[in-house]
Amino acid sequence: MEKIPPFNAQKLEAACKVLADTERGLTGSEIGYLLQDCRINDVSQGMTKWKRLFNALVEMQNQHQVGNHLIMFINRALDPVGYARNKEKFSWRRNELNVILSFSGFAVREDGKVIHTPKETTLKGARARAGALKSALEDRNTHSEVFKYCPTEVVEDNYFHAVLESIKGVAQRIRDMSNLTTDGAELVNTAFSVKTPVLAINSLTTETEISEQKGFSNILVGLFGTARNPTAHAPKIIWQMTEHDALDIMSLVSFIHRKLDRAIKV
Hints:
Low-confidence stretches: none
Shape: elongated
Helix content: 55-70%
Strand content: under 5%
Number of helices: 13
Number of strands: 4
Structural class: mainly alpha
Strand order of the largest sheet: 1-2
């Protein structure tokens, strides 16, 4: 294996914090097993997970003056076989590592192996290259209409504006289908009325179908009030949007588009 220059402390720490993330990182026992498998001395077993991993890798870098041990550990940790029932966790770890590794000229492929790539110099470029949000949405088989209204925001992992634009896209699609010109709750209540509907997601001939139409209308009104209106009116620095929230909201938007696929104009 070629000799890889040592990683500086900042990059090594960032990689360890992803690999040992509290919620989506490796467990303590997994870290212990992988360190042993890579023949890396586990020098700080009593410390927090990321510090334990960081200290073990630092010791190997100082001893051998190469960065190979981090790459070896990542190759073992991201073996796709171990993620057969948890693709989202694999995607998150891979994408977050790709942001960090891109500054050193590396990337993790879909098979979990680290390869050489051109070095990245900006955070924006690193996040765009990793495409974390896009990858996670594709893994969820997200409806194509979601991407239609926020392609740039998704690629740049701009969670706040990706959510805003995707929900605005729902309203626009309803207007296009219904020929209505209003917005928000007024648009939804008019379009999906059960008494004088403009659009129907079923035949509206049974109580169950009428209940489904009402429920769908309520989902839309709730989505606009809970997610779109705050992002439309509050500054990004005040109304925080996490990756997890963005994925869940945009998955709901995807569900709505699938329902709209079946909707007919009455």
